[in-house]
Amino acid sequence: MQAKLQKFSWLVAGAGVGALLTAGVSALASKDTLSPLPLNELRAFTEVYDRVKQNYVEPVEDKKLINEAINGMLSGLDPHSAYLDPESYKDLRVSTAGEFGGLGLEVNLEDGLVRVVSPIEDTPAARAGIKPGDLIMKIDETPVRGLSLNEAVSKMRGKPNTQVVLTVLRKGETKPLQFTLMRSIIKVQSVKFKMLEPGFGYIRLAQFQERSTEDVARAVEKLYKENKTALKGLVLDLRNDPGGVLNAAVGVSSIFLPDDALVVYTDGRTPDSKVRLTASREFVGRDGKDSFKSLPREIKNVPLVVLVNAGSASASEIVAGALQDHKRAVVVGTQTFGKGSVQTILPVGKDSAIKLTTARYFTPGGRSIQAKGIVPDIEVEEAPINGVSLEAFRIREADLEHHLNNPQGENRPESKPETRQPEPKSDTKPAPAPKKPRSDKDERDEELKPGEISVKKDPQLQQALNVLKVQQVVGRTATAK
Fold first, then answer.
1. Residue 132 backbone phi and psi in degrees, to 5
2. What family classification does the UniProt entry report for this protein (predicted)?
3. Which residues, in sequence order, are CB contacts of 422 under 8 Å at separation 6+?
4. Contact 206, 238 (CB under 8 A)
5. How far is CA 102 from CA 13, 28, 131, 167, 192, in A?
6. Residue 262 · residue 275 · CB < 8 Å
7. Could you give all domains of the chain from N- to C-terminal order, each with its CATH number?
8. Most CB atoms within 10 A, among 229, 334, 340, 362?
């Protein structure tokens, strides 16, 4: 059991591989008996290989041809399977510690272009104004089309304090946009917290890292100390959290769930891919095991709201789904990304690996997250920025080319029908509508910034706080009876 656990503890739980690699490192390759080789297909492959070697306009190295063949084999399976060359493999192992070089982007490859899943808070990409759904078409003077995802990411990485220019296609813009970003060491501050009001706490988790369980537990302790009494309610904000280390998702869920409650289970073809992870210290990982010692006992029962949106992926969806299925929290926001597949890092040779999809995630209630995501209990749209709805920029797993299907049937977010005013029947041109005075809501929408913690400027957070207050009233009424 211990060996099986050790292998599973390094499974990937991120939304994708990009300038931010949200993954863990690495399970050993399976030693199952190899299937018979498809001789006819291999003959075709070797014939194509020989034709390219002999007839291509320029000489091509064998290593390049083999690597590109592996890249094509894996990228054709689904958006999350990939070949990791030595440099990418090294970056993968470094990034889970929460500090790495780059721009701070979570990206996927779509239609030959790099699509932004989410910019990470407090990074060059977020500060420059890169938005979810942006398509990166050029990196400096190099067109992205034709590059593999790893090659594109490699060009965006570089020494700190060096510049890179991204040319971006954005929905609603008639011309490409250019952003000049300064590379830096990305130190993702995984957890932020504060008191929203007396008795009501707030914890923001930006990415699931190796130490996230410990960081969330410490935040809970400090909120209790700041409040000096038991908390009346807590908001756990997982919006735009692209995922990360699977053990951290189990650990964070374990803080709020009863002991031994099922958090998530996986199902795949091999015995090692069929695993049930519970709210137990043995599944939390080395950094989270001691995080529960000083936690207030009341945290298991404090009213809880989880905030999610389309940028909440994988590990975030595991936590939201577990807390929702156990009726432990009310989920508020918009439907999540829908990345419900497990990637295992399988070493190839001494210094490279493949990231291969090996299983699907399921919530404790048996729901597949893949291409569906988590549907909130209370749907609340995000506040627009400069009058533009962020939902228009969102991309989900179901929108990605070659995405893995959901065995229970896909469930894309339903698009709301446009509201159109009836056209006037007369030939008389209608008088222009009088301009409405600017309201407090208009001011609030324009001033909202990504990552900002403000109840007044954030309708989703405002609704979360309202839910907690209603629960307080209902609880007191029930007690009085």
1. -55, 140
2. Belongs to the peptidase S41A family.
3. none
4. no
5. 20, 28, 17, 17, 22
6. no
7. 1-30+48-414+447-475 (3.90.226.10)
8. 340
* CA-based nearest residue to 281, from 245, 299, 254: 254
In a 13 Å sphere around the CA of 244, the CA atoms on its Cβ side amount to 29
Cα–Cα nearest to 152, from 169, 170, 164: 164
Question: Do residues 321 and 374 lie in contact, with contact meaning Cβ atoms separated by under 8 Å?
Answer: yes
CB atoms within 10 A of CB 425: 6
DSSP 223: H
Q: What would the pLDDT profile of 31-79 be if each residue is shown by its tens digit? A: 445 678 899 999 999 999 999 999 999 999 999 999 999 999 998 999 9
pLDDT band at 438 (very low <50, low <70, confident <90, very high): very low
Distance of alpha carbon 84 from alpha carbon 240, whole angstroms = 25
* Backbone conformation region of residue 350, classed left if phi is above 0, alpha if psi is from -120 to 50, else beta: alpha
Residue 300 backbone phi and psi in degrees, to 5:
-70, -20
Q: What is the mean pLDDT of the chain?
A: 81
Q: Judging by DSSP bridges, how do beta strands 378-379 and 99-102 pair with one another?
A: unpaired
Measured distance CA(163)–CA(157) in Å, rounded? 10
Q: What is the model's pLDDT at position 350? A: 85
Q: Are 281 and 52 in contact (CB under 8 A)?
A: no
Judge contact between 200 and 231, C-beta under 8 A.
yes
Residue ranges with strand state E in 183-297: 184-187, 191-197, 200-205, 233-237, 243-245, 262-268, 275-278
pTM above 0.85, yes or no: no
Question: For residue 336, is it left (φ>0), alpha (ψ between -120 and 50) or beta?
Answer: beta
Q: Name which of 329, 391, 389 is nearest 364 in CA terms.
A: 329
Q: Tell me which residue has tokens 């699509």.
A: 115
Residue 308 is predicted with a pLDDT of 97
